[in-house]
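Onboarding guide, step 5: your first structure request.
Type a short instruction followed by the sequence, for example:

Predict the 3D structure of this protein.
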Amino acid sequence: METLLKMFQSFRPPTLKGIESAVECESWLDDIEMLFDYLEYTDERRVKLVGHQLQEVAKNWWLTTKRALEHRGTEITWKVCKAEFYQQFFPVSYRKYKGAEFANLREGQLNIEEYVAKFPTLLRFTPHVAESDEAVADQFINSLNPEIFTLVNTSRPNNFSDVLNRAKGAEAGLLRQRSTSYVAPTPRPPQP
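The system replies with C-alpha coordinates like these:
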Protein backbone atom coordinates (compact mmCIF):
# COMPACT_ATOMS: atom_id res chain seq x y z
CA MET A 1 0.00 0.00 0.00
CA GLU A 2 2.86 2.41 0.79
CA THR A 3 4.30 2.03 -2.73
CA LEU A 4 0.87 2.52 -4.26
CA LEU A 5 0.30 5.66 -2.20
CA LYS A 6 3.71 7.09 -3.15
CA MET A 7 3.07 6.43 -6.82
CA PHE A 8 -0.40 7.97 -6.60
CA GLN A 9 0.95 11.04 -4.75
CA SER A 10 3.56 11.53 -7.47
CA PHE A 11 0.69 12.63 -9.75
CA ARG A 12 -0.11 15.44 -7.28
CA PRO A 13 -3.78 14.61 -6.90
CA PRO A 14 -5.96 17.45 -5.60
CA THR A 15 -7.07 17.61 -1.99
CA LEU A 16 -10.43 18.57 -0.54
CA LYS A 17 -11.01 20.32 2.77
CA GLY A 18 -14.79 20.05 2.70
CA ILE A 19 -15.39 23.78 3.06
CA GLU A 20 -15.36 24.45 -0.69
CA SER A 21 -18.48 25.27 -2.68
CA ALA A 22 -20.56 22.45 -4.14
CA VAL A 23 -19.19 23.22 -7.60
CA GLU A 24 -15.59 23.04 -6.33
CA CYS A 25 -16.34 19.76 -4.54
CA GLU A 26 -17.75 18.31 -7.72
CA SER A 27 -14.76 19.52 -9.69
CA TRP A 28 -12.47 17.87 -7.15
CA LEU A 29 -14.34 14.57 -7.49
CA ASP A 30 -14.16 14.81 -11.30
CA ASP A 31 -10.41 15.42 -11.14
CA ILE A 32 -9.82 12.49 -8.76
CA GLU A 33 -11.99 10.20 -10.85
CA MET A 34 -10.19 11.17 -14.05
CA LEU A 35 -6.87 10.36 -12.40
CA PHE A 36 -8.21 7.03 -11.14
CA ASP A 37 -9.46 6.22 -14.64
CA TYR A 38 -6.12 7.21 -16.18
CA LEU A 39 -4.28 4.97 -13.73
CA GLU A 40 -6.87 2.23 -14.28
CA TYR A 41 -7.37 1.78 -10.54
CA THR A 42 -9.82 -0.79 -9.25
CA ASP A 43 -12.71 0.12 -6.96
CA GLU A 44 -10.73 -1.18 -4.00
CA ARG A 45 -7.74 1.07 -4.74
CA ARG A 46 -9.98 4.10 -5.33
CA VAL A 47 -11.67 3.67 -1.96
CA LYS A 48 -8.35 3.23 -0.16
CA LEU A 49 -6.67 6.20 -1.83
CA VAL A 50 -9.48 8.76 -1.82
CA GLY A 51 -9.31 9.16 1.94
CA HIS A 52 -5.71 10.35 1.66
CA GLN A 53 -6.86 13.32 -0.40
CA LEU A 54 -9.36 14.53 2.18
CA GLN A 55 -8.42 17.07 4.81
CA GLU A 56 -10.07 18.86 7.73
CA VAL A 57 -13.90 18.74 7.48
CA ALA A 58 -13.87 16.32 4.55
CA LYS A 59 -11.51 13.93 6.35
CA ASN A 60 -13.65 13.94 9.51
CA TRP A 61 -16.77 13.38 7.42
CA TRP A 62 -15.20 10.42 5.58
CA LEU A 63 -13.90 8.74 8.75
CA THR A 64 -17.33 9.01 10.38
CA THR A 65 -19.17 7.89 7.23
CA LYS A 66 -16.80 4.97 6.64
CA ARG A 67 -17.25 3.73 10.22
CA ALA A 68 -21.03 3.99 9.92
CA LEU A 69 -21.04 2.05 6.64
CA GLU A 70 -18.79 -0.65 8.10
CA HIS A 71 -20.98 -0.84 11.22
CA ARG A 72 -24.03 -1.45 9.01
CA GLY A 73 -22.15 -4.12 7.10
CA THR A 74 -22.19 -2.16 3.85
CA GLU A 75 -19.48 -3.06 1.38
CA ILE A 76 -17.68 0.20 0.61
CA THR A 77 -17.30 0.28 -3.14
CA TRP A 78 -16.35 3.31 -5.21
CA LYS A 79 -20.02 3.66 -6.19
CA VAL A 80 -21.06 3.71 -2.52
CA CYS A 81 -18.27 6.17 -1.72
CA LYS A 82 -19.39 8.54 -4.49
CA ALA A 83 -23.05 8.26 -3.46
CA GLU A 84 -22.14 9.22 0.11
CA PHE A 85 -19.97 12.07 -1.20
CA TYR A 86 -22.84 13.44 -3.29
CA GLN A 87 -25.24 13.26 -0.35
CA GLN A 88 -22.82 15.21 1.84
CA PHE A 89 -21.48 17.80 -0.57
CA PHE A 90 -24.38 18.10 -3.03
CA PRO A 91 -27.60 18.42 -1.05
CA VAL A 92 -30.78 17.41 -2.85
CA SER A 93 -31.92 21.05 -2.79
CA TYR A 94 -28.76 22.08 -4.67
CA ARG A 95 -29.18 19.31 -7.26
CA LYS A 96 -32.85 20.29 -7.78
CA TYR A 97 -31.91 23.95 -8.15
CA LYS A 98 -29.27 23.09 -10.76
CA GLY A 99 -31.70 20.75 -12.54
CA ALA A 100 -34.24 23.58 -12.73
CA GLU A 101 -31.52 25.94 -13.95
CA PHE A 102 -30.77 23.45 -16.74
CA ALA A 103 -34.46 23.12 -17.65
CA ASN A 104 -34.70 26.91 -17.93
CA LEU A 105 -31.39 27.41 -19.75
CA ARG A 106 -31.80 29.33 -22.99
CA GLU A 107 -29.22 30.59 -25.43
CA GLY A 108 -30.56 34.12 -24.98
CA GLN A 109 -27.79 36.71 -25.27
CA LEU A 110 -25.07 34.03 -25.32
CA ASN A 111 -23.30 33.08 -28.50
CA ILE A 112 -23.16 29.37 -29.34
CA GLU A 113 -19.71 28.89 -27.76
CA GLU A 114 -20.85 30.46 -24.47
CA TYR A 115 -24.06 28.45 -24.51
CA VAL A 116 -22.12 25.24 -25.22
CA ALA A 117 -19.81 25.97 -22.29
CA LYS A 118 -22.74 26.39 -19.88
CA PHE A 119 -24.85 23.50 -21.20
CA PRO A 120 -22.78 20.48 -19.99
CA THR A 121 -22.06 22.00 -16.58
CA LEU A 122 -25.80 21.96 -15.88
CA LEU A 123 -26.55 18.78 -17.87
CA ARG A 124 -24.83 16.67 -15.20
CA PHE A 125 -27.67 17.55 -12.81
CA THR A 126 -30.27 15.96 -15.10
CA PRO A 127 -29.20 12.35 -15.55
CA HIS A 128 -32.56 11.47 -17.13
CA VAL A 129 -31.60 13.76 -20.04
CA ALA A 130 -27.86 13.02 -20.04
CA GLU A 131 -28.29 9.28 -20.53
CA SER A 132 -29.74 9.73 -24.03
CA ASP A 133 -27.82 11.51 -26.80
CA GLU A 134 -31.12 12.19 -28.56
CA ALA A 135 -32.61 13.79 -25.40
CA VAL A 136 -29.48 15.94 -25.01
CA ALA A 137 -29.77 17.02 -28.65
CA ASP A 138 -33.48 17.84 -28.24
CA GLN A 139 -32.86 19.90 -25.10
CA PHE A 140 -30.06 21.81 -26.81
CA ILE A 141 -32.11 22.52 -29.94
CA ASN A 142 -35.20 23.58 -28.02
CA SER A 143 -33.18 26.09 -26.01
CA LEU A 144 -31.64 27.83 -29.01
CA ASN A 145 -32.65 31.32 -30.11
CA PRO A 146 -35.54 31.25 -32.64
CA GLU A 147 -33.45 32.10 -35.75
CA ILE A 148 -30.85 29.42 -35.03
CA PHE A 149 -33.52 26.96 -33.83
CA THR A 150 -35.29 27.22 -37.19
CA LEU A 151 -32.09 26.67 -39.16
CA VAL A 152 -30.97 23.70 -37.03
CA ASN A 153 -34.40 22.14 -36.59
CA THR A 154 -35.19 21.93 -40.31
CA SER A 155 -33.18 18.73 -40.61
CA ARG A 156 -33.71 17.74 -36.94
CA PRO A 157 -30.40 16.04 -36.20
CA ASN A 158 -30.73 13.44 -33.45
CA ASN A 159 -27.30 13.47 -31.84
CA PHE A 160 -25.54 16.22 -29.96
CA SER A 161 -22.47 16.35 -32.20
CA ASP A 162 -24.59 17.03 -35.32
CA VAL A 163 -26.71 19.57 -33.45
CA LEU A 164 -23.64 21.43 -32.26
CA ASN A 165 -22.06 21.54 -35.72
CA ARG A 166 -25.28 22.75 -37.32
CA ALA A 167 -25.86 25.38 -34.62
CA LYS A 168 -22.33 26.75 -35.04
CA GLY A 169 -22.79 26.82 -38.81
CA ALA A 170 -26.18 28.53 -38.51
CA GLU A 171 -24.78 31.17 -36.17
CA ALA A 172 -21.81 31.81 -38.48
CA GLY A 173 -24.19 32.16 -41.45
CA LEU A 174 -26.42 34.60 -39.58
CA LEU A 175 -23.44 36.68 -38.48
CA ARG A 176 -22.14 36.78 -42.06
CA GLN A 177 -25.58 37.76 -43.30
CA ARG A 178 -25.89 40.57 -40.75
CA SER A 179 -22.42 41.96 -41.51
CA THR A 180 -23.10 42.29 -45.22
CA SER A 181 -26.03 44.64 -45.42
CA TYR A 182 -27.74 45.28 -48.71
CA VAL A 183 -26.90 48.61 -50.33
CA ALA A 184 -29.37 49.78 -52.96
CA PRO A 185 -27.77 50.81 -56.24
CA THR A 186 -27.56 54.56 -56.84
CA PRO A 187 -29.85 55.59 -59.65
CA ARG A 188 -28.05 56.84 -62.73
CA PRO A 189 -28.80 60.31 -63.92
CA PRO A 190 -30.85 60.36 -67.11
CA GLN A 191 -28.83 60.31 -70.32
CA PRO A 192 -29.28 63.32 -72.63
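Each response can be followed by summary notes, for example: The mean pLDDT is 88.
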